[in-house]
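Action item from last week, closing it out:
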Amino acid sequence: MKIPDEIKWPKTPSEAREIQNSERQKVILQDRFGVIHKIAGVDIGFREKGNLARGAVVVLEFPSLKLIDSAVTFREVNFPYVPGFLSFREIPVLLDALRKLKHFPDLIVCDGQGIAHPRRFGLASHLGVLLDVPTIGSAKSHFIGTHEELPSQKGSRVELREDGELLGYVYRSRDAVKPIYISPGHRISQESSLKIIEQCITKFRLPETTRMADHLASHTDEEKLKDKRLS
């Protein structure tokens, strides 16, 4: 995985929209990956009223989900909070964290959207195109698209669509809990995105990838994270 050097980021939503409309043409929604040995989760926490981002990445063996690497870093946020453009706030600090890894992942799961985005270029798609690696969006909340009613049983899934286009799946990871929203980011199909996230689910609502990254981004130091593993 080649991490690009410092990137010149846009300052306004209009500039960011131009980038999304251009770069989304590079998104590949086909399986372009080999055997997955290492899978990463990334997440962001914010401090100082949203002006300081804490980027976190964990790398797990796959499919055992054993933690083998992690990194956290801080960066000042230089882009406004505007729904649909959150990747421009989050990716700069995520790249900093990824640069600190000793074990590079074969696939990255993002706590955010993939193509389930108005311009089909959410956080997972943006990060995937930048790094040219397979990525999946596993979001905690609905952003766009419609779906049929989801049964309350664990393992239930329904298609997430917009104007007939399959964006991904709504998935119930535990009985009677809020679902997660799974969409491909880059170099992976909708169906494979769902299958891989299913393999990352243990006894919690979130897949282990982003669950552990969330702990690290929000409040847990790296040593405590290593002690948690699948607890």
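Closing note: The chain has six helices and eight strands.
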